[in-house]
Each structure stands twice: as C-alpha cells, then as structure tokens.
Amino acid sequence: MNGKFGAFIAAIIMLFIGLAFISLSPELDKTPTENKSYKSNYTYKTPSTDKSTTDTTKKSSPKKQPTVSNDDYFNAKDYLAPEDFYADHYDDFYDYEDAEDYYYSYN
Q1: Does the pTM of the predicted model rise above 0.90?
Q2: Following DSSP, what letter does each residue of the chain receive, concatenated?
Q3: CB of 87 closer than 8 Å to CB of 44
Q4: What is the pLDDT of residues 27-62, one digit of tens each?
C-alpha cells in the first residue's frame, strides 16, 4: 500500500507543477497579435483613399451607397477575396471553411 500511495502523491505533485507552468508562462497569455514571434501569412490590401487627385472643377456625381442585400449580414460583396473576409470576421465563424462558404454564397 505504501508504494501505491507514493505513486499517487507523485502524480498529484506532477499535475500541480504542470498547471503552475501553464499558468505562469507569459507567452501563453498573449494573443497572436501581441506575440512578437507571430508572423501572419496574409497580406491585407485596402483601397486607396488618396483624394489629392480629385478634380474640383468637375461636378461630382452623387456617390452610390454600397448595395447591401437584406440577408447578407456581413456584407461579403465588399471583399475581394475570402481571405480578406475571414480576416475581418474570423470570430464570427467556426473556421475558415465556414467563412469561405458564406463568402461564396453571397458573391
């Protein structure tokens, strides 16, 4: 009985050491954007908003509002690629494939 009790105590001690290591590790508390060693494989492209080239002598036509269908909650048509859509809405979908399916269903 003494050997089994010693093994049980050793297992409990190892469990607490593992939990202490996990809770005290500073790298595990960081999100990927805070972690300096994290590098993204995605390149984010945003449309140019340079207004210095606008000719002010012409009458400007009224700007169109983006078309938003009533059932497209995330405005998938505003994105050029499913990667860009997923980058903005990664927390709204289960995984990349789920977001990609949504993107293609509205494009």
Answers
A1: no
A2: -HHHHHHHHHHHHHHHHHHHHHHH-GGGGS-TTT-TT---S----------TT--SSSPPPPPPPPP--TT-TT-GGG-SSHHHHHHHHGGGSSSHHHHHHHHHH--
A3: yes
A4: 655 555 555 555 555 555 666 655 555 555 555 555
Please choose, from the candidates 1, 83, 94, the residue with its C-alpha nearest in 3D space to the C-alpha of residue 45: 83
- What is the distance between the alpha carbons of residues 62 and 76, in angstroms, rounded to a whole number? 24
Token output for 52 = 């210095």
Gap between the Cα atoms of 71 and 106, Å rounded: 9
